[in-house]
Amino acid sequence: MSAVYVESWAPEYGSPIAHDSELEPSDGVVDPAVEQSEWLPKPPLAGCADDVPVVVFIDGVRRVDARLTLDDNHSVTPGLFGSLAVGATTWDRTVPKSEFGHITMERIAFLSGGRNEPVPAGGLGYETVGVPSEDPGELVRQLHERMRVAEADLAATLADGSDHLVVADGPVNSLKPRSIIGLVKTHRVNYLELPQITTVRALDAGDRTPLFLIDASRFARYSWYLKLADVPGGHLWSGVVRCEVPASLGLDRAVVLADQSATLLPKTAPALHADPRAPQNLVPIAALEKRLRRELGDPKLVYRALRQAAMEGSR
Predict the structure, then answer these.
(1) In this structure, are residues 281 and 293 in contact, taking their beta carbons and an 8 Å threshold?
(2) HEC profile of 54-106
(3) Which of 34, 59, 193, 251 is 20 to 30 A (C-alpha) from 130?
(4) Positive or negative torsion for Cα 109, 112, 114, 116
(5) CB proximity list for 274: less than 8 A, separation 6 or greater
(6) Spacing of C-alpha 23 from chain mean position
(7) How far apart are CA 223 and CA 70, in angstroms?
(8) 10-residue block means of pLDDT along the chain (315 residues)?
(9) 22-57, pLDDT tens digit by residue?
């Protein structure tokens, strides 16, 4: 009989385990022996983060403000008004204190069929972007991609020329050798075979697995699993995140970043009662998400302004 587990995440946030292989590259070869051939849990390495004075957490939020339709009497074109914001939480370990910064916000009106004409938006400053596809679902994907690009640009800016450790919420998406750790909260693909999965099950809080190389068609990455905290009554993946860095960094640098992540990231994991996605939704990232949502403005007021502008524009 199979064991039954109730997830620690609140139901409205889904599950830390997903089974949609289209959302994460599943092609390519995985090499689990790049760091060491013997797969055993690796406890935090004392002193490995002493030379990391600042840790920067990057995240973004997006919101569909309203759906829109252009009616030309003979045809209709779907679109949407969307907003996004990205920013950073900077943890200065020398003080210690954390603060928000580098916050930017965009508003975009996406139109299907490649249309690129201005639409009334109540003075809220929406940029019009034409999407060639006729698929309405592509509009949301374009909004999400715009947010991911903004996150990547900010992470690159803060990583270049600094000694900061940069942690980006989500997979890395750059080939360049930057010291940026991608933090993946939801497990969508099983990259390991049974012997290595047994090691994941044996992780204690703060332990990580050895590195493995994901040689996917998009680009190669070094990756590792890290257990942020013990979850009472948990299963194999409870409290576990997957971290990754571009393979262009080189194995030695990737090992250093993996050791630093095992020392620092568990310190920022929330208690199970404190966050609906605990412990994977790190405290600096959760706080940043709240701050960014405020940046987008009250959704009801934005929607009301868009409706009013549309009615006035159609007179």
Answers:
(1) no
(2) EEEEEEEEEEEEEEEEEECCCCEEEEEEEEEEEEEEEEECCCCEEEEEEEEEE
(3) 59
(4) negative
(5) 283
(6) 13
(7) 45
(8) 54 58 55 93 91 95 93 84 97 93 96 88 92 90 96 94 89 88 90 90 95 83 95 87 95 96 95 88 95 96 93 71
(9) 334 445 689 999 999 999 999 999 889 888 999 999
